[in-house]
Structure formats: structure tokens, C-alpha cells
Amino acid sequence: ISVCCVCVCQHLTFIYFLFLSLLPLACLSSLYLSVSLVLSLGECQLFSSVSRPTVKQPPTIIKQSPKDFIVDPRDNIIIECEAKGNPQPRFTWRRKGKFLNTGKDPRVNMRKRSGTLEINFRSGGRPEDYEGEYQCLASNDLGVAVSNKILLRVSKAPLWPKELLEPVLVSEGHSLVLACNPPPGLPPPLHLLDEQRVSMGLNGDLYFSNVLAKDAHTDYSCNARFLFTHTIQQKNPFSLKVQTEPYNDTSSYNSSDPYGGRRIPESMPTFLSPSGSESSKMVLRGQQLLLECIAAGLPTPSIKWFKKGGDLPAQKVKFENHNKTLKIVSVSEEDAGEYVCLANNHVGGIRHNIHVQVKGAPYWLDKPTNLVLAPDENGRLVCRASGNPRPQVQWLVNGEPVESSLPNPSREMMGDTIIFRSVQIGSSAVYQCNASNQHGYLLANAFVSVLDMAPRILGPKSQLIKVIENNRTFLDCPFFGSPLPDLRWFKNGQGSGLDGGHYRVYINGTLEIKRARTEDEGTYTCVASNIMGTVENQVILEVKEPTRIVRGLEHQSAFRGSTARFDCKVKSDPSLPVTVSWLKDDSPLSLGLRRDEESLSIPNVNEGDQGVYTCTAQSEIDQDVSSARLTVLDRPDPPMDLDLSDLAVRSVRLTWIPGNDHNSVITQFLVQYEEDRWEPGSWQNLTSYPGDLNSVILQLSPFINYQFRVIAINSVGQSAPSHPSPRYKTSGAPPDAIPSGLQGWGTKKNNMEISWEPLLNVERNGPNLHYQLWWRRKDTGEAWSNVTTTGSKHVVHDTDTYVPYEIRIQALNDHGAGPTSNVATGYSGEDKPTDAPTNLRVSNVDSTSVTIHWNPVDPSSVMGEFKEYRLYYWREASLLKGLRVSQEKMTRGFYSIAQRPSAVLGGLVPFSHYRMLMVVANRGHEGPPSNTVEVRTKEGVPDAPKYFEIVKRALDTIHLQWDKPLEPNGVLIGYQLKYHTVNGSKLGPYRLETFPPNITQYTMRLPDRATRYKFFLSALTQVGAGEAFTGEFPRSANEAYSKDQVDIATQGWFIGLMCAIALIILILLIVCFIKRSRGGKYPVRDKKDLALDPVDQKEDGSFDYHSDEDNKPLQGSQASLDGPPKESDDSLVDYGEGGDGQFNEDGSFIGQYTVKKDSKDETEGNESSEATSPVNAIYSLA
């Protein structure tokens, strides 16, 4: 149960208990613990698992019909009266102050276990016979509760009385009032009409501020609408006749004049309603105030409102009926005062003062509330009300005036207060307070219940409460008892009561933890005690981490057909299961979407997927929500309804309606055209326009039958083309364009080919397109030659070699000639140059470049357009013996018209032998070669070594290996190696090693195996060091040894372990040999076993091994079971290749082991016992 407010009564817990004892079925989610709300919460059960205590309670009215009860005569009458109490209340009714015997009238029924009356008219009867004042009484052993006095009235919609209405005669311009006088009904009727000059008053009368001739009608009828019965009654119609004056001056007639030129005398305003200069109005507090001012006059007056001594309440006031009605809703005392209505026209003005009084039916200041007392306790009932005039307060007990009830020594009357002192069991009763004045009354029931009961805990036992960290937390301990128990809270059964600081205990037993923390977890105990006993209950509190969406949804836009993805990463308390759910536009997602714990994927996005997506992460005690909008972008729909207008010779207006842009703004419209003469069916781009235009002027070409379509473009792409527009054909005209690209150039030495770009089809402008071409030699003054052709080139024959020509061109069709082009210069064909450059020579020879010089040729010998001097050069050989080189020829062009030309040739290989020659070239030919020059470049620095490898050979050494450069560029004199230590990105100081040219490898010892090194290897010539080859070791962190890494074979624990294993094996072998020998000798079979090298015994008893096979495991042989044993008591069999050495055993296993290299005959006499030497076994294991 959530505590929503602080208690207002010192005995609140008792009331709470009494209320709970009568709660049968539903469950409260929130309970306001005040006495007044206990009466109004209705029937509810707090805990279904808690057995209800059988506590008596006086009756309480919980439902009743309104005081002014209007019913529809067509329906049955139901007068409600419901009450609760223990024992179950009994119900009786009073009608017009007298007891109502419901059993005598067959139409009247009272519902079972209820006081509600049902009056049935299905079998006849008149509802009007049951009108009157009703009051319900609910009683049990502890008292009587009384309902309000319910005034039952039957709604009426009476007919208008039949009457004969004489025609109404009025002069034009005068005022008029047509009375409505509707018949009375329940509730009062509404009236319909609203106009500035002609308006309806609040009473239904029709007011004419001034009458016009057009107002003459025979059907003025007043209609009254009865809302309750949904009926409209109509009065007999009025007939209105208007007397008009004849025209005074027909010359001044104006059709807009409502009086048709007749001189109607103007008049100043007079009030039609209300009459006189002053009136008064009384309104009840909380009701609606309506003030009305309707004025006559010509012209029609305007109405304004004021309030003397203050401003009109702007928040509450409203003007209606063209300012003729002032309405204030929910009137309060401050709305009383004098209101002024001012009517004005240009003739004059008039005012009316309305004095408004605000009266009030009684309203509560302090409503009496139920009171629960223990024996010998004190209490009071207070009943305070206000109104205008001040209401009179009357107390009743069990429905009868207190004055006429039995005397009660514990009760004292003090005006609007009843004081109880030292109450006793049996003095329970229901008290009524009636506050009334001439405008209405209030009636309230409040019971006084005297109880004597030990404390009880209403909540479940040992309840587990889970809360979110840092949240405000309430631990409930609902209790009851009489007298009022004292309640205290403890944590983990220790310390004093919890109250103050971090905690707060409410009077209803709830403990508030202002901000729950992890250290607040534990078991809380509430203890309730009074003089009747003590009871306690425990609440276990667990504080959990909040459920949070740490990476929430983000607004995104997705192209149609793509995949959209929303991320929803959740962090929560590990002990709380969390459910992640997805919504789209506040509805559960449909199937077909891929969902997992932290994301939602929407494949093949379409328009139906657009909307707001919500991810909800919910645990049993909290939740977090994240939402974002998905906008689906798509290509726009094609434009529609293409229309052509403003047709002209060279232009037309094209208009269209844009299609849906599908959430991506249209940025451009592309207009295309198709013509059916040159390329029918082929659509060409005409022009494009900004996306905010949909009507454009298209510039057209002549002699084309156009058809247009429009394509819309947005950020996603292009729409489909629109439907084509109607065709529009332009008329022909001479060509506007000049053929472009006009040029002349010889394909042979004695011709010139003139070519140009033909006009486009849309540039033809008419049929039979052809070209007029002119040419002549430049600067000779000869006449123009010309030709007419339909092609795009023409060849002029028999020309001199490489001479300039002037050329021009013009396009023509059947409609005339177009503009002539500017004069262009062309040239006839070229021939091979006749001269060669002379005196080719070099200077400034370097290792990679030389400067070349030559004598130029006569320009006339070039026989065409000079292009360049072209140098051919090639590497003949290297100056190092035995080095093979490529002799591929290379070229380099030099454009120079200087008298003494020179140029620098770079990119040469050092220490090489080059040859070179030069020719002159025009656009198509080369001339004869010059003299050949030989050049030897100087020595340079070498290239980088061919390769550079770094190989690890041991734990503390690396091996470096390289090869000589592919291009030494000189005589190698050696190599230099620089290396640095590397710490992150920093290099330490370098060390330098040099090597002669015949050394290409180097082994290097590493001082620190955990250090990283960087190497720079370069070759050397006399000129200096060449390009360095770079390498690092180790190349990655995986190859590096950490400083803490050690060789396991050198560790003491490992050596000790191996020795222990060897000793165990040795002991096992000795035991085995002893069991097999049993004092005899085993023959040794001669096989191709590995021989043992001599072993010397040192003075300290250890062994010295010299064989290279020390680290190989020895091959052992198994003892022969077939051969005869040798007669030896204490010796093991001989080992080795025919040796007869023995191992003498004296109990201490210290002896000498020898192997003899004797003849084959000696070894054949012994067979191997195939038993492994224990000494070698130890060594092989070690």
C-alpha cells in the first residue's frame, strides 16, 4: 500500500482498521489515509491473504441520488441509496417526512442488500404521482445514517397553448419586441436566434433594434427546445407588416442603402431590456451569471460593459450575442458589485446600471468525519459551514435531533462542535450535521465507534521488498488496535527505533527511507503495542541497481530496401531478470523482424516500417525506455499531369504536379524530350530546374516535333519518368549554329584535309542541311575556292608542302543560310626534315646527369611544324667488370628555338658508359641523326643491399646476413651496420660496425634478450654510404623475451626433480637385476647396439662423458631366457660391443665401468643381456 498523505486524525489507525474489516474483493493501489477518504473509497479488500477481523461498524452512506433529481417520464424511476456497516445495515425510506411503506405499493421495490428504490411503470401508472421529497435511512445496532433529502421531479415538455396571433404592424426604423412566453418545463427550455440588429433575449423574446422593410414576414415562430426529453416545441407564427415612407428624392437612390433612399429619422439608443436606468440581479455562488442589455435605436447601437470600482474578470468573463450578454462562469463573492451597460450610436448614448448580489448555498469549511475511540478516550466532532446568508447548524443522532435523543453523560454540545469525554463501550452512534440557509442545505454523517482491541498487523508476514538504489522507499506496516498502538521500527533487530535523519515514520505505520542505499539492505521489524498487547512483523529490504538503457535508440533515416538497426544496450542488476520488449507507434511489433537482446534489425525497409520505435527494458521493479523515429527515404514518385501552355515559336511553358517526395526533399527536376524525326523513341536531357519549381519556360529549337517528360530527383535517386506530355511541333528556320572544330591539316605532303563537327539534329532547324566551305592560301590575296557538301570533311589536293591556308564555313538548309564562321588557319601536309643537328657534345658530367649542347637546324629544313629536338641515348656498359646491363634505347625531347640550345639529361646510372645522338622532329617525321657522343658517368653511392635477413640462432645471439647491391654504382669498399635500441617510438644511441666488401654475414651477441633493436645496413663506395636496408629484432612482441623469463633447464627445482626421477628409475632397475640374477650370470647377446664411449670415474665419484651421443637415449636389451647363465654371483652382464668389462657390486654401488674394443671373436662369445645401464639411464634422463 502506498502512503499518499500524512494523517489528519490522532485515531486514524482505528478508522483504517474499521474500513478494512468491510472491504470485500478488489485491491487498492493507492490509499489516502484521511478520515474523509475512508468514507469515499468504496468497497475494496486490502490483502486477500489476511483474515478479516470481525469488528462492528456503524452504517455509512456511500452512494445516493442527487438532491434535485429530475427523471424522464418514459423510464422507470431508480432512487439510489447504498451504505456499508457491520452488521449489514437495514434500509427504510421517508417520503415528504413520513415513513414510506414500500410493501403496500406493487410498483415500488427495494433491491436486496441495498436501499435503492425501483419504481416500475411497465404495468401502468403515472410518474407524476411519485413526485416529492425522499430520504433514505440506513441502520444497524450501532446507529442510523441518513441520506440527503432527494427532491424527485418528473421532466415535462408541455405544448404551447393554442392562440390566435394578430398581425403586428410597425413603422420602418422603429424598434419591436415579439414575445415568446414559452410554456414552463423541467428543465427550462432553450431559445434559438442570434443577429446584431435582431436578437433574442434570455427570456426568449425577439428584439428588433430597428425594423427594415425586408423584415416583413409571416412566419416568425418561437421554438423552445427541452434538452432532457430531446424535444422542440413551436409557437404559432407571428405575421409582421412594415409601414414604409414614399421616396423623397429618387435622384439620390443608392442600391446599397437598406432604406432604398427613403428618409428614415435616426434615433438615439433606448433600452428594450432591461427597462429603466437601474436594475438588480441575484446569483448563487458557483452558478453562472448572465447579464443582458438590448438597445433600440437607428443606427443599431453598439454595447459595451464596465464594472464600477474594478475591472471585469478577464479569465472568467465572456461576451455573447454581439456583446449584448455578459456571462461569468462559477461566480464567487468578488464578482458582486455594480455593472454598467453602455449603448452608443452616432446620435447619442445611454447607460444602465445592474447591481449584482452574490448569495451562497452552504458549503463546507470543516466537514465532520468518522471518529474511533478507545474506552475512556476523548474526542470531538466539528461541523463548520459557510454561505450567504450564514447557514444554521443542527446536530442529529441516528436521524433524530440531539435534543430529543437519550441523554449521554460523555457528550457535550458546544454550537457546531460535539465534545466526547471518557467514552464507554456501547456509546457508538451515527451523528448527522445539517447546515442550511434559504438557498440550500448540507447533510453529513459521521459515526462515533468505541472499540477495545489488541494490536494487529494487517500486512503479509516477512514480506520481501525490492527497491531501486537512490529511490525514495516506503516500508508498510499497516496496523490497528484500540487504544491507538505505539509503533516503532528496528533494523536487523538491533539499536533503538528508526526515526529521524535518513528515516521517517508515519502515523499509519509506514517507514520512509528517503534515499535507499546498498547499506540499507536488511531485515526491518515493526512493533505495535498498546495496553492490550504487542505484535510485530518483518520486512526484508533488498536494494538493487537501476535498470538503464546505456546505449539508446537514435533517430535515423534509411533508404527503402536497406536494413535499419536500432541498438538498445541494457545495464541492470545481475540478480534481476530483465525483459526487453519493442514497440512501434505504441503497438507491439509484428513478426518478421530480427530481434535480439540488444538490437532490432529491420530488413528490406519500406514505408510501412516508418514510425517511432520504442525499446523497453523492464525488470520486476523498474524499467527504462528509449524511443527514436525511423524515417524511410525513397525515390520520389514521378510528376503528374504535365501540361503545355504559352505556346510560342521557340518556347513553351511546361507545368506539372510533383509527386510524393518520400521524406527526402526533391532537389531537382530533369526535363527530357523526345522527337520523332531523327531519333524516335530516344529521350534526351533538355535542361534541369530547382526542386521548388513546377512551371518553367522551355527554350526550343525549330523544326522538331517535341514530346516532354519530367524526372524528380532527391537524395535517394531519380523517380520514374512521368507520363509524356502532348506533342508540340515547332516551325523551320535557317540554322542558328556555326559548325565547330573547323581545322585544316595535311594527311600527305601535297594535300590539306579540312574537317569540322557537323551540326546536331536539333540544330538543323529545317530539311536538307548542307555546308558551304571556302579556302585560299594565306597572305597571297588569291580568290576564295569553295565547295558545297553534306559531309563533315573535304580534301584539297595538289598543295605545296606545309603552307598556311585561310578557311571558313557556313551551314544552310531549305529555309536559308546560317551565320558564317570566323576565318581559321590550316596547313598542308608535312615532309621529313632535311637537316640534322650538328656538333652534339656534353659537359658537366656527373654521376647521374650531363649537360648536352648542339647546333640548331635551319627552321625551313624542318618541312613542317617544329615539335622538338629528340635525343636518343642508351647504356652501353657498366664500368664495373662483369656487371651485365640493359642496352634499351631511351628518348628525351627538348623544345628550344634558341641560337645555342642546351639541356640537362638526368636519371643516368652512376659509373656507366652511355652513347647518345639527336634528331629534329616535326608532327609526323624525324630528320637525319646527328653525330654520336659517348659519356662515362662518375662513381656514386651504391643502392641498398639486395636483401637483409636477421635470424635468431640462440637465446642470446642473432645472425645477420645480406647480399651485395644490384647496382653498386661504383667500386664497393665495404658495408656499415648501425643499430639502436628501441623503447616505444624512441631510439637510443647508435652503435656502428663496419665490414669489408667480401663479408656478408655477422653474428651478434645480445646483452639483454628483452631489448628490441633496429638495424640500418648500407653499402659503401669511395663516394659514401648508399641507401640503408632497415630491419628490427624482434619483429613483434611475441618474439621478445620478458625480463622475468628464464631457461627452465638451469633452474634448481627442475634439476632436483630430474634427479629424483632418475634415482627412482635406478632403484627399480637394480631391484629388477637382483631378482633376475639370483647369484648367476646372464649371457650378453651381441647385437648392433650403440657402443658406449669410455667413462672415467672422477675422484668425487661422478662420471665424465665424452661421447657425442650423450644426449641420445641408449638402446637397452632384454635378458635372454634361453642362454645358459654365467657363473658369477655378484656381477652384472657385460655391456658394449664385445667388451668384457664388468660392474662390480659391493653393496655400495661404487665401482668401475669399462668398455673394451676387442676382436670380433671375443664379442661373439657373449650375448647382450638387453638390460639398460642404470648409469646411462640416469644420463639420458638428465
TrEMBL record:
Keyword Plastid annotated: no
Query: Bias category Polar residues: which stretches?
Result: 1166-1175
Q: Which residues cross the membrane?
A: 12-39, 1053-1074
Reading the lineage from the top rank, the first entry is: Eukaryota
Task: Please provide, in alphabetical order, the Gene Ontology terms of the cellular component aspect for this entry.
Answer: cell surface; growth cone; plasma membrane
Q: Name one GO biological process term.
A: brain development
Q: Where is the composition biased (Basic and acidic residues)?
A: 1096-1112
* Residue stretches making up the Fibronectin type-III domain: 638-733, 738-831, 836-940, 941-1040
Q: Note the InterPro entries from the entry.
A: FN3_dom, FN3_sf, Ig-like_dom, Ig-like_dom_sf, Ig-like_fold, Ig_I-set, Ig_sub, Ig_sub2
Keyword Signal carried by entry: no
What is a single molecular function from GO for this protein? cell-cell adhesion mediator activity
**Keyword vocabulary terms for this entry:** Cell adhesion, Disulfide bond, Immunoglobulin domain, Membrane, Repeat, Transmembrane, Transmembrane helix
CDD domains reported in the protein's UniProt record: FN3
Compartment list: Membrane
Domain Ig-like, residue spans: 59-147, 269-357, 362-449, 460-542, 546-631
Q: Where is the segment annotated Disordered?
A: 817-837, 1096-1182
Task: Indicate how the chain sits in the lipid bilayer.
Answer: Single-pass type I membrane protein
- Describe the family membership recorded for this protein in Swiss-Prot or TrEMBL: Belongs to the immunoglobulin superfamily. L1/neurofascin/NgCAM family.
Q: What is this protein called?
A: Neurofascin homolog (chicken) a
Please report the organism this UniProt entry assigns to the protein.
Gadus morhua
